[in-house]
C-alpha cells in the first residue's frame, strides 16, 4: 500500500496581503508547522503499519517553501498556474503520485492541526475499507481529506477554486469521517485578523 501525503502550499494569500504561509506562528512559518507534522506522521505510520509506504509531496509556487521541502528529502512540485485555484494544485499532486494507492491532502494554513489528527485520519481510512476519509466538526466536512485511486479521475476533472470537498459531497456513503473535538484545529487563517482572533 502506497500513501502519498500531499501538502498544498501554492495559494496567493490575497486576503492576507502578504505570503501568509511564511507568517511566523509560535516561532515557525505557518507552512512549516504542517510540514513538520507530516514528516512525523510518515515516520510513525511506516513504523506501525507493516507494508505501508508513505511519501510526502509539497505543491507550491514559492521557492523558499520548495527549498525547505527539498532539504527534508520530500518531493516538490511547482505550480506555474496558482491563479487557477486549488484544483490546479490538487491535479499536480495526483499527477506527481500516479503510483500511489491513495492521496491525503493537507492545506498549509491550518497551523493548529495536530499530528495525531492527521495520523488518526490515515489509520481510519486504512481500516475502514472506504474510498475516502475526511475530518469533520459539528457536521461540517474539512481538511485534511484522503482519496483512494478510484477517485483520482474525478479529482483531475476539478476546475477553478473547487477542492475535493465536491467529490466527498457527491459520495458521502463511501467516506469515513473523523470527528475533531477541538474546532481550532480546522481554522483556516486567511487574514491577519483571523490570527489575532485565535490568539485571544
UniProtKB/TrEMBL annotation:
Molecular function in Gene Ontology: nucleotidyltransferase activity
CDD domains with a match to the protein in the record: GT_2_like_f
Listed Gene3D superfamilies: Spore Coat Polysaccharide Biosynthesis Protein SpsA, Chain A
InterPro entries: MobA-like_NTP_Trfase, Nucleotide-diphossugar_trans
Superkingdom per UniProt: Bacteria
SUPFAM superfamilies: Nucleotide-diphospho-sugar transferases
Domain MobA-like NTP transferase: 6-171
Protein name (Swiss-Prot/TrEMBL): Nucleotidyltransferase family protein
Source species of the chain: Candidatus Blautia faecigallinarum
Upper classification of the organism: Bacteria, Bacillati, Bacillota, Clostridia, Lachnospirales
